[in-house]
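WARN retry 2 of 3 for item q-0093 after timeout on previous attempt; input resubmitted unchanged.
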Amino acid sequence: MAKTTTLSSLFIAAALTLSAHSAAAQSSFEARTEAGAEANMPLVDERITAVVSGQYSRTTIRQTYENRSKDRLEGRYIIKAGEGARVQGFSYWNGEKKIVGEVFEKQIARQVYEEVTGLGRDPGLLEQVGEGAFSFRVFPIAGGEKKPIEVTLGKWLPRSAGVVEYRMPVGLAGASIRVSIDDARGITGLSSPTHKITSVKSKGGQIEVRATAPKGQSKEFVLRYSPVSKPWQLSGYVHKDKGHDGYLAVTLATPRSVAASKVTAKDVTIVLDRSGSMDGPPLEHAKLAAKAVVSRLGKGDRINVVLFDDTAESLYKLPKAADDKVKAEALAYIDKVQDGGGTDIAGALRYAMKAQRGDALPNVILFLTDGQSSAQQALAAAKSDKSDARLFTIGVGSGVEKPLLSRLAKQKRGRFTYIESPDAIGARISRLYSQIESPVMVDVELIVDGVRLSRTYPRSMPDLYRGDELRIATRVRSAGTARITVKGMIAGKPVIFRASAQVKDGMAKPWVGRLWAESRTDDLLEEIALQGEKDELKNEVIDLATAYNFVTPYTSFLAIPESELTRAAKSTLKNARDRKAKILAAHKDAVALSRKAMPPGDPVLKVKAPKNARQVTAYFPFGLEKDLTFDATTEHWKVRFLVPKSVKDGVYEVKIVIVHNDGKIEMATIPYTIDSSGPDFQVETKVVGGVVRIKVTGKELLRAATVLTAAGQRIDLVLSADRMSLEGELELKPGNHQLKVVVMDRARNESDKQVSVSIAKGPLAQVSQ
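OK item q-0093 returned
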């Protein structure tokens, strides 16, 4: 087996949907010789750079591994992105050359990869190899070579008890860690339990955080802060590009604590799967979880236990008051459970829902199973129930059918919790039950007037608990003022929260569109898991992932030097890029598309900094972050970049962070002009014989000008030394002519004018304009 350099410990725990303590990303690197012997490639450099916009984080992890042997090695890089995270970027280096990955349909990416590797070459192919897990093979790695790898992850950071928490594993104590927080609400309580940090506020209002040193032996970086908002503040965020649909994100956070008098007594029905598929550890884990629920029952609660395989039976006909005697009976009943026959979740659901008292106490059904049953029948059973019972599904064991259990919980306004390790049962059940016993707001409903919505997620609004957060993402099919209303019941009384948001061209919050695309993709993948693979569902996943640049079970990142492509691979890749261009044309509202007014070669930013600087990074005010590379010819650090279409013309300040060779950090700002308006200019013509002398004079610096005739003649005018004018001559036949003069400014924006000229038969001179 290959030796593994592990960058963080493995976090295995139940994943409660809105918990702030979801597992962070983890990465590892396995190395072996060509003979198959395990080898050591230590991590020698690590840089973590994150930008948090609203509560959406985008983290770029750059790690460098070194082959300290003389052997040629093969490496395998594995990253577990963590719950809710997406791989949105992937690159690796061959020597000094950075090879940037592109997202393609998985089948096509694999075809190109195998075509090239068959010839002894090895491009980069980053694929999803499990839920939230991605893999990339690296070969060859020469003796003494350093191999940098860069991965970008995107993730929403949920707010729990009013606190937003950012977590990222750290492999080196001296890792460079920088986080930029852009939150219009403002933030307070910025702290890190794992690292000493410094923070400054930039001119643009962003909070720039740098970790200076770890406080102890922690293998992760944790950053916490609280958005400045009033209790029950409803917020709306909009992204809309000109001429395209908009996107709306809505958030609402509940109070951090609830008074004891508001803790609600309830009927709790534990439904325990004893089928053959639960044999062994899964059943034992489920029994532990069930007993943990019984131990949490409070004053006024009532309890019942339902056991099922292909039939169902219960401890009591209806829930009984959870006194000490009844609790003991429930625990003994659970202890005696043994595995049995098949799994009929639909039948168990109908049985449990009928076994409710139907009085004033709320009904909570806790369903513990691996979910291996007919999905369609189970969903139909949940949909047919017209009661207000809340269904909380708890998956146990490694073979859990998460899509089914997640969809069942959503249909009945509950939550899905996944438990794989018995060590996590106590803490996860305790946290889950703490929420169940203190519902803060129930019967939640979203209403948006003034604009037309399409495909809103989640499909049904969940109940909200103390320290909870509601997050909604939707597509907006029209412009206007979105009047947002969230209604519900608190302590038996109706409440209404209102907010408004303008949906108009130029509203630039790209993370909102990305959040919707990811929510839509999750829903499609869940639908595929439940209904079976259908072309229309699969193709939409591929289109969304390609447009928004992230990996799914149907898409992969392919990074390959053009010089390594075979003729067949080039043909396959060309077809794939043509298809990708069509997808992008159909999704022009996707993040990171360049504006049409910019030149075919992307704009270049140049910075003067020492050649031996460790890193030079540019932070653009429209949310883009780019690392610069040193150009030995010009002796500048430079980078090409894309400007989002939504960015308005004007002069912007680009923040530059220079990390010097000695670790010292220098910050500076430089102006950059965004100009998409066409040039304003005048045209003068003078006819001498059959020759037209043409002069173009601009009101700004110009780049080029071309003159075209209806007959197809064309000349390029000559630029003056001051770049304010251009001149040239065009020979025409006698008669009337229409000339089209096309002028380009220094930003490569174009304008044109029509000019009329007349050529006489004799030697007459005429001036026209």
